[in-house]
Amino acid sequence: MVEKRGTHGLLAHVVMLLGVFIVAFPIFVAFTATTHTAQEIVQAPMPLWPGTNIYDSFHGALFGRATSAGSNAPVAHMMWVSFVTATVISIGKISISLLSAFAIVYFRFPFRKTCFWAIFITLMLPVEVRILPTYKVLSDLNMLNTYAGLTVPLIASATATFLFRQFFLTVPEELTEASRMDGASPMRFFFDVLLPLSKTSMAALFVIQFIYGWNQYLWPLLATTGEDMYPVVVGIKRMIAGGDSQNEWNVVMATAILAMLPPAIVVVGMQKWFVKGLVDTEK
Question: Which of 100, 107, 124, 231 could bond 82 through an S-S bridge, CB–CB 3.0 to 4.6 Å?
């Protein structure tokens, strides 16, 4: 039986196409800017048809070009810093959250619920609130301008701990009893039973936390003191200095396009696991 959608279906498609256009048009403009020279971009109106300067723009972005008033650090190294930072933050958050949720759910110790709520309350203390004391601690430990300084302050996650706790509470008690009867130690139960069951949740959280780590701006802006440790998001801002005529906007836009690629690849590559982790958390 064919369902007749009428004007409602047509309106839904029009709204969807309008939304796609609103989201995609700035990306198209940024890509078009990479195909023109800096002089052509600052002309009014800016050309919206692709040019022939795309290789020079991306080559200048990836390997640096000392002709701009702003930062000239190679974007290839910035993207490596961002990739390492985002990966360490993602894996660290998941690992610590898994262990803390496992301890809260399966171990009986004094003030267990108090510990959980103490972790949960840290949601009200984002990086912006504790940024000054965190900076002071890292400065005293000589961790500024290092990978540890970029990742350690962001590696704990109350949200992930809460999500894993809620998932572990849905695991049948029979699995725990069966593992105990087989003589499995707590960590054996953790690695052989809980981790395989948590794969989809871990994948979904990895995507979210990777994008979170990749898009960090405020903390890296304070924690980095040299161009060799700029993540790409900070690098884009550092490349912009002075007036329009002093910036190579084609290189800046090429950097912005490159900065979008790794998160997009992670989302597309893990889309199946990401969706499954969000809809199957009750299983």
Answer: 231
**237 is in which domain, residue-wise?**
75-279
Q: Are 194 and 171 in contact (CB under 8 A)?
A: yes
In terms of C-beta density within 10 A (0-12 exposed, 13-18 middle, 19 or more buried), how is residue 66 classed? exposed
Mean pLDDT of 195-212: 90
Task: Provide, rounded to the nearest whole percent, the portion of the chain with pLDDT above 70.
Answer: 90
DSSP string, 174-213: HHHHHHHHTT--HHHHIIIIIHHHTHHHHHHHHHHHHHHH
CA distance 270 to 255: 24
SS3 assignment, position 28: helix
Mean pLDDT of 32-46: 83
Residue 112 forms part of a structural domain: yes
87 and 210 Cβ atoms separated by less than 8 Å: yes
**Mean pLDDT in residue range 182-200:** 87
Name the residue with tokens 């000054």.
132
Q: Please check whether residue 57 lies inside any domain of the structure.
A: no
Q: How many domains does the chain have?
A: 1
Q: Is residue 88 in some structural domain?
A: yes
pLDDT in tens, 105-117: 888 888 888 888 8
Whether 273 is covered by a domain: the verdict is yes
Q: What is the CATH number of the domain that holds 95?
A: 1.10.3720.10
